[in-house]
Amino acid sequence: MAVLAIDQGTSATKAVVVDDAGKVLGLAEVAVTVHATSDGGVEVDPDALWASVVAAGQQAIAASGNPTLTAIGLGNQGETIVAWDRATGQTQGPAIVWQDRRSSVVCDRLAEHGARLAQLTGLELDPYFVAPKMVWLRDRIESGLVVTTSDSWLLHQLCGAFVTDVATAGRTLLLDLETGNWSDEACAIFDIDSSTLPTVVG
Fold first, then answer.
1. Strands (DSSP E) found in 32-177
2. What CA–CA distance (Å, rounded) separates 94 from 132?
3. pLDDT tens, 83-106?
4. What whole-number distance in Å separates Cα of residue 195 and Cα of residue 202?
5. Chain centroid to CA 26
6. Which of 16, 151, 193, 199 is the residue whose CA sits 20 to 30 A from 56?
């Protein structure tokens, strides 16, 4: 029995297979290309992210001798977002990477809510975090698509689930630290419907 762990990072996706005793059986790394734009944007092709996850996973499994896997774990760029269709899994446009600063206009517009958001979520109102990026991107995509952190889309591609973990949700400016669930108040500040967000799990 073995576990495959995948870390989808900014410049590369890394994968490792370990056995029940924690011994490393196989390793792999696949590079990812990020593109900067002249207006402060930082983007990556989401299909390239997915391809890197598949390739790194397959290579690590092959390097470990193709053991039977009991689980797959996924780590991700916590503040990178993707717009996609839940019915098909199809993305629209590039993924917006955590370094992207174009949503600073959203933060400026909502500056009066900064102190309250910090109380609710533990985070400063800053383009680094997810919610401002979601608002900025929502105005540039077709209606009916969801905008989530990249882990939710990658997990949907892997197994059809619509989830995120508490750690990643905690980087969104939308998670209530006391309840560990989406904050209706924070969502209202950003005009985000919490029912369109993935389920938060451990």
1. 35-36, 42-44, 69-75, 81-84, 95-96, 146-149, 163-165, 175-176
2. 16
3. 999 999 999 999 999 999 999 999
4. 19
5. 25
6. 199
